[in-house]
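**Backbone description:**
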Amino acid sequence: MAVSRRTFMKTAGISGVGLLSAPLIAARGSEAAHAPELAHSELPLSPFASETRAAYRIAAPSALRLDSNENPNGPGRAALDAIRAMFDESPRYPDAATNDLTQTIATHFKLTPEQVLVGCGSGEILRMASYAFTSPEKALVTGAPSFEDPVRHSEMMRAPIRSVAVDTSLRLDLARMLDDSRGAGLVFLCNPNNPTGTVHGAAVVRDFIAEVNRRSPETIVMVDEAYHEYVGDPNYATAVPIAVANPKVVVVRTFSKVFGMAGLRAGYAIGMPETLNAMRRHRLPNNMNVLAAAAAMATLPDTRHIEREVQLNREAREFTRKALASMGFESPASNANFIMVPIGRDSRVFRDACAKHGVLVGRPFPPLTTHARISIGTMDEMRRATDVFRQVLAGAAN
């Protein structure tokens, strides 16, 4: 019998056992029930995604989760079938699965396995790069706001952090990042950028990398393409061809976003072997989950499924943008599965008010403290969420 995303846990025969959590794997269409009123102002405000997200989700387990840029539909049928077929390998360490996934990714991109490094989500890849290339003498250069994990990991290396505020269009200010790149260990270029959803075109990225190489020849440029599949800007292109020819460039990808596997944890880096080897020293042993590896191998070539997910996201995203615009809150075009909306008020207050109505949205992202990042759920979820946004924003205006 074919298995669907919604029936996977039941047909796999493990519902209630706890081996895999249904909310992490299956679709979230049943999460509409409003949570009780909560004193959210007492919850900790961590600068890091996982701690803030955990506090809110534990307090409001039935809320609409529009706070972490997840794909609300979960993995596709091919991925779920591959997981079910891999259960017999669950007692074994993931040596073969790791090798197989590495080879699958290499084949997909027409590379050699030495040009691919897999990790426990892209989070581990970012940690490896931060540990390998930053130090007290080698700074991290990043946008503000941008994805925070490289900052967290580089701070653990006691590296200086050079944060450059985004420009007035919410795009990474590459000119200023370039000025700060001299002597840096690592430049983090998130493209599209999280949390702003803005993107830089291929020529701009290529020229930026070339100039970093010229000004600071030892600096590594890490291009995070977590949202690559969602990009609609015709000027955009992946930096993978640069990374496989330039030892000072690494591209990072993940299966957490369009592939719907955030709870399974699989990501990878592409680069030249000598660059990846410097990162590999910081890799966790047995870092690959055999079920995640199976799902990743099955879903990577499933182009029809990915195209469908991109379409669904685009429709729900543009519905949400138009709904907010009708309330007077215009948001920039997004090339990801979230939007960054200027709400003209403290985003923490907005977040807390939405949470009390059973809708979780993104944490504050300084210096954009009057913007709210809203992840895109299903169309049904976004219809219900925009009703809450309308109520909250109207109430704040009175």
